Amino acid sequence: MSHIVIDSDKCKACYLCIDECPKKLIKVSEKTNKLGDHLVEFCDPEKQCIGCAMCATRCPDLAITEVYRG
């Protein structure tokens, strides 16, 4: 079972990760960064994340880390 962690201090709200997730588990959040941009959030209540790390690979700010929990 995998999930991702998004570092809100690094996220610049480019939203590239949203398009990369094959399961569409990353969404625009209500939280904002210090510039007022809406951050992204990982939403996986049904544990659908496949651990592909496409979102982390696409993130230009290295704000996403994939975590595997067995």
List keywords for this structure.
70 residues; alpha+beta; 2 helices; 14% helix; globular; 4Fe4S_Fe-S-bd
Count every helix, treating DSSP H or I runs of 4 or more residues as helices. Answer: 2
Strand order of the largest sheet: 1-4
Q: Report the sheet with the most strands, covering strand number, pairing sense and barrel closure.
A: 2 strands, antiparallel
Secondary-structure-derived class = alpha+beta
Q: Give the topology string: H per helix, E per strand.
A: EHEEHE
- How large a portion of the residues is in β-strands, by DSSP E? 25-35%
Mean pLDDT: 93
Low-pLDDT segments, ≥5 res:
none
The count of strands amounts to 4
> Overall 3D geometry?
globular
The N- and C-terminal alpha carbons lie at a distance of: 6 Å
The gyration radius over C-alpha positions equals 11 Å
- Estimate percent helicity: 10-25%
Structure commentary:
There is one protein chain. With 70 residues, this protein is α+β, with helices and mostly antiparallel strands. The chain has two helices and four strands. The protein has helices spanning 16-20, 54-58; strands spanning 2-6, 26-32, 38-42, 64-68. The strands form two sheets. A two-stranded antiparallel sheet has the order 1-4. The longest helix is centred in the first third of the chain and has 5 residues, at 16-20. The protein is globular, with a radius of gyration of 11 Å. The model has no long low-confidence stretch (mean pLDDT 93).
